[in-house]
């Protein structure tokens, strides 16, 4: 897959991606022939009404769900051709995840949670990289604390550092501020923005929150399993305006 004319490098791409759940009369087409690209060093948000397919798209892009037809690429690798073992290795080595519910291991300290992906892969951390992540999340004095001893915002910052510990090709964030108050959400979004700007990280975030999406470089909108538009350099008001259009019922004639 070649670079774009602007010199941006594709980090993740979907080609004619379709996902159908069920069969026959009960079949649900969650994604319908989606072709889309996300670029290296870019913060992208995926938005759309409930049931639009945004979470399904993220799960397929991240190799967490199989596709019915079409292709998904991480860099130049077509992940739809991989077996389960290769997919597991890919997710461990090349993909980071940030979840709404943090998903920290309660028996591990903050530092142990951050290095967990590396420990599982039996890889030694790049200490300089790890130090930069710890400094970025601002929790060096709380590294020995367990998740229950941290606030929700602090837990999510640990989860963000964990997602980047292995220097992944892309980080997928699923409603990362959904369980946070506004102040903690602002801190986490600022952190994700910093990862992109200062570390060149690629982040793809699913969110329903226009304020969260306004931190992104670009917002992609879905409706009924299809890409129906996008906004570069989005503002919160422009996102609200676009969502209002998408949530207006389609009247058939």
Automatic annotation (TrEMBL):
Name the domain of life this protein comes from: Bacteria
Gene3D superfamilies membership: P-loop containing nucleotide triphosphate hydrolases
Pfam families tied to this protein: ABC_tran
Keywords from the UniProt entry: ATP-binding, Nucleotide-binding, Transport
Q: Which SUPFAM superfamilies does UniProt cross-reference here?
A: P-loop containing nucleoside triphosphate hydrolases
Domain named ABC transporter: which ranges? 12-249
The Gene Ontology CC terms held by the record are: membrane protein complex; plasma membrane
Citing just one GO molecular function, the answer is:
ATP binding
Q: By its UniProt entry, which PANTHER family does this protein fall under?
A: ABC TRANSPORTER RELATED (PTHR24220:SF685), IMPORT ATP-BINDING PROTEIN (PTHR24220)
**Designated name of the protein:** ABC transporter related protein
Species whose genome carries this gene: Acidothermus cellulolyticus (strain ATCC 43068 / DSM 8971 / 11B)
Q: What is the lineage of its organism?
A: Bacteria, Bacillati, Actinomycetota, Actinomycetes, Acidothermales
């Amino acid at each position: 897959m070649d670079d774009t004319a602007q010199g941006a490098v594709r980090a993740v791409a979907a080609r004619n991606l379709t996902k159908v759940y069920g069969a026959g009369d009960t079949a649900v087409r969650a994604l319908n022939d989606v072709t889309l690209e996300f670029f290296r060093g870019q913060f992208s948000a995926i938005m759309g009404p409930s049931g639009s397919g945004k979470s399904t798209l993220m799960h397929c892009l991240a190799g967490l769900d199989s596709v019915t037809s079409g292709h998904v690429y991480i860099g130049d690798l077509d992940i739809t051709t991989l077996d389960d073992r290769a997919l597991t290795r890919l997710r461990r080595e090349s993909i980071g995840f940030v979840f709404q519910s943090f998903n920290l291991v309660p028996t591990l300290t903050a530092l142990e949670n951050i290095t967990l992906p590396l420990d599982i892969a039996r890889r030694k951390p790049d200490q300089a990289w790890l130090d930069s992540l710890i400094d970025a999340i601002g929790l060096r004095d709380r590294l020995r604390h367990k998740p229950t001893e941290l606030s929700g915002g602090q837990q999510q910052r640990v989860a963000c550092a964990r997602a980047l510990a292995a220097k992944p090709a892309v980080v997928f964030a699923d409603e990362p501020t959904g369980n946070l108050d506004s102040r903690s959400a602002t801190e986490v979004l600022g952190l994700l923005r910093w990862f992109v700007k200062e570390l060149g990280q690629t982040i793809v975030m699913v969110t329903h929150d226009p304020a969260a999406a306004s931190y992104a470089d670009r917002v992609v909108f879905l409706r009924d399993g299809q890409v129906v538009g996008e906004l570069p350099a989005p503002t919160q008001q422009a996102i609200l305006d676009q969502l209002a259009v998408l949530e207006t019922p389609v009247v058939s004639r």
